[in-house]
Amino acid sequence: xxxxxxxxxxxxxxxxxxxxxxxxxxxxxxxxxxxxxxxxxxxxxxxxxxxxxxxxxxxxxxxxxxxxxxxxxxxxxxxxxxxxxxxxxxxxxxxxxxxxxxxxxxxxxxxxxxxxxxxxxxxxxxxxxxxxxxxxxxxxxxxxxxxxxxxxxxxxxxxxxxxxxxxxxxxxxxxxxxxxxxxxxxxxxxxxxxxxxxxxxxxxxxxxxxxxxxxxxxxxxxxxxxxxxxxxxxxxxxxxxxxxxxxxxxxxxxxxxxxxxxxxxxxxxxxxxxxxxxxxxxxxx
Length: 285
Description:
By secondary structure, the chain is α/β, with parallel strands linked by helices. The protein has 6 helices and 5 strands, in the order H-E-H-E-H-E-H-E-E-H-H. It has helices at 2-60, 93-105, 117-126, 143-158, 192-198, 210-284; strands spanning 78-83, 110-115, 129-130, 164-174, 177-186. The protein has a 5-stranded mixed beta sheet, sandwiched between helices. The model has no long low-confidence stretch (mean pLDDT 79).
């Protein structure tokens, strides 16, 4: 019985060691990719800030400015861009994002543009109206894809397919901290009284008009925002996976130590039993 128990423990140790090798390998891969992902995040922020400032300059330098992208209207349907991961094994990265998005939706009529395999699966399970599944692999979404997404979303907003646009993503804070967030994109906040109070802010003349230039820039602004959110989410996923795999490796190490202790105890018990049997046989002889 002791021998069979020792064999089971030995097999269990080998199984945990194999799992530990996988988790350590995944941790190393996530760590190596994370450095590049963080660089992408840093490079994407200036573009978004520049586009946001350009829109503000155009809007607030015209006292009679008007654009469909800044005009609030009755909300009949809301669109969400949900950016999640392509795979699991990243702790609560995907589930935390989905909880934040679901809480923000509050059972109102919505349509969704999912980015990432997990986002597509989640939207299908919940029965949401999905605009497209073209971007099911988040890791493969490029800057040009973000321009396509932005053009589709801006056209949909202008045509009245939806009345609000939000982006659900995960904000990369640090290696150990990633916060899910839901950011409002459209309509863009515009305080008309501020423009009137401050008066003209620029001598720039826009052709054919400031509104036309503004409306042409908005898709670029949205694409920069979506790309920035995608970079933040990708870095967050890698950070969450690295942390999860590190914890899994530590747990596996603790399990191996505990199993080795049990194995040694079982081995010691088997040796003691054999010595007892030998001594008993010698005494009988």
